[in-house]
């Protein structure tokens, strides 16, 4: 009874751990999206910074509570749009300070002219806004919060100088925190959040039906990282090896000898290729040979796990009906990332230019951009494109591409085309060595039925094609 309860509790703990991993993975995928990351940053950092300024206001007279509204508004603007027009420290600090100074000047002029009257001077309010508009325009400090600081000076009584100093101190404090966040986290989010930039270093290549170009493409990807490694994997068929060994005297001993001989021949071929890759791509390369009836997806995935590989680069193959081969479907149905590579017959050793065709700025799109950066010749831009069916969608599409490439360092070109994706790619593919497309496995069955995956329409594309599939992380 006691053992049964213990087993039940242990099973419950394991199940809770799996749930926790799935929830963490779901959160990780959610926060990878730039919009979600910015929303979360606003919810976390804006309240913390306002709390810090509130503490300053409580311990020193240099910070007035009247600057909270413009400060909160300006801080939100910084973190909600860190690459926007107003998201620079000089604009943020200068705009708010200029507004406070303009309000102070307007109040002084109104007092000198004897025009002030009532609780708040209407003339002072008009002049504050006028001076702020002229000043921020002339100095290119068009910060919306500047108008708030200009008007709130009118409520400070005789504490205008303290208010201006408080604006300078508090805005500088917020700007410094923002710069640290943007430089060391937001602009490095690909490093911290996106799996492929820190992973997909160990690449397994099933060599059964693959030509050398597939393996070289894998070596180019792995060689971009210092910790990269390529594993060339092939299978020896025991039955075929036995039939080729006509000199075996004893059947069982002969079978063992024939398999070993065949495995040795395959291993020597792979080791020769591995040595070439190590020299050409400056990447560690290993050869693994297994004895099995065929090179199945399950065998490849098991070998990838044993070799600690997080990416499989396999040759593209179709089923007779036109869909993916059962081998590739088996590879896609795992937690390991997969690239199905289709060479156009050029047998390239290097890929000087890359085109990435995306539908959005999600997980697969980021993986494609990362892989393209790795294989593209240094110094050349990576082209990232998306297709729209109506011009009214151009601005959102441009913003999507900007969010996508902004997370990566390097040179980029972004294209938004009003055309079907297959038409666009057929037209521009000859300009590039390789085109990256998604596997569409994240789409619903109904969506794939209505509109077949893009890669099924690109059989005649005049470029190599890399179909990227992100594994199902468990």
Describe the protein's architecture and organization:
- α14 links the parallel β4 (311-315) and β5.
- The chain is elongated, with a radius of gyration of 31 Å.
- The longest helix is centred in the N-terminal third of the chain and has 31 residues, at 2-32.
- The protein has 474 residues and is an alpha/beta fold.
- It has 18 helices and ten strands.
- It has a ten-stranded mixed sheet with strand order 3-2-1-4-5-10-9-6-7-8, sandwiched between helices.
- Total domain modules: 4
Mean pLDDT: 80
* Biggest pleated sheet: 10 strands, mixed
Question: What percent of residues are in strands?
Answer: 5-15%
Main structural class: alpha/beta
Key terms for this structure?
single chain; 474 residues; alpha/beta; Rossmann fold; 4 domains; ten-stranded mixed β-sheet; 55% helix; elongated
């Amino acid at each position: 009874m006691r053992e049964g309860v213990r087993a039940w509790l242990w099973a419950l703990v394991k199940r809770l751990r799996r749930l926790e991993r799935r929830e963490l993975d779901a959160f990780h995928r959610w926060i990878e999206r730039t919009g979600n990351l910015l929303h979360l940053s606003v919810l976390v950092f804006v309240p913390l910074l306002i709390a810090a300024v509130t503490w300053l206001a409580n311990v020193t007279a240099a910070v007035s509570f009247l600057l909270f509204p413009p400060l909160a508004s300006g801080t939100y603007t910084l973190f909600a749009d860190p690459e926007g027009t107003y998201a620079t420290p000089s604009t943020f600090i200068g705009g708010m300070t200029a507004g406070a100074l303009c309000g102070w000047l307007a109040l002084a002029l109104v007092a000198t002219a004897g025009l002030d009257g009532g609780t708040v001077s209407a003339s002072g309010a008009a002049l504050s806004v006028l001076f702020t508009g002229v000043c921020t325009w002339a100095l290119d400090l068009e910060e919306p919060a500047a108008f708030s600081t200009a008007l709130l000076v009118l409520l400070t009584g005789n504490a205008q100088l303290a208010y201006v100093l408080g604006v300078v101190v508090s805005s500088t404090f917020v700007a410094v925190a923002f710069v640290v966040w943007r430089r060391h986290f937001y602009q490095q989010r690909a490093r911290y959040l996106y799996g492929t930039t820190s992973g997909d270093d160990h690449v397994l290549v099933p060599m059964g039906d693959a030509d050398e170009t597939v393996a070289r493409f894998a070596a180019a990807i792995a060689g971009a990282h210092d910790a990269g490694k390529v594993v060339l994997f092939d299978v020896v068929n025991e039955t075929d090896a036995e039939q080729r060994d006509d000199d075996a005297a004893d059947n069982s001993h002969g079978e063992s000898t024939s398999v070993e001989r065949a495995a040795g021949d395959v291993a020597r071929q792979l080791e020769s290729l591995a040595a070439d890759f190590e020299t050409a791509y400056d990447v560690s390369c290993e050869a693994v040979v297994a004895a099995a009836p065929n090179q199945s997806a399950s065998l490849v995935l098991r070998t990838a796990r044993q070799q600690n590989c997080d990416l499989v680069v396999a040759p593209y193959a179709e089923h007779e009906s036109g869909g993916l081969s059962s081998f590739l479907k088996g590879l896609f149905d795992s937690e390991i990332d997969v690239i199905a590579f289709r060479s156009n017959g050029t047998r390239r050793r290097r890929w000087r230019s890359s085109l990435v065709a995306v539908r959005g700025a999600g997980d697969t799109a980021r993986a494609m951009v990362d892989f393209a950066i790795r294989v593209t010749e240094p110094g050349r831009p990576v082209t990232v494109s998306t297709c729209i069916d109506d011009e009214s969608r151009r601005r959102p599409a441009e913003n999507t591409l900007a969010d996508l490439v902004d997370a990566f360092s390097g040179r980029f070109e972004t294209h938004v085309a009003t055309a079907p994706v297959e038409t666009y790619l057929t037209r521009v593919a000859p300009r590039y060595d390789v085109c990256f497309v998604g596997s569409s496995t994240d789409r619903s069955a109904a969506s794939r039925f209505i509109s077949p995956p893009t890669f099924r329409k690109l059989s005649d594309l005049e470029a190599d094609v890399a179909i990227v599939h992100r594994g199902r992380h468990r």
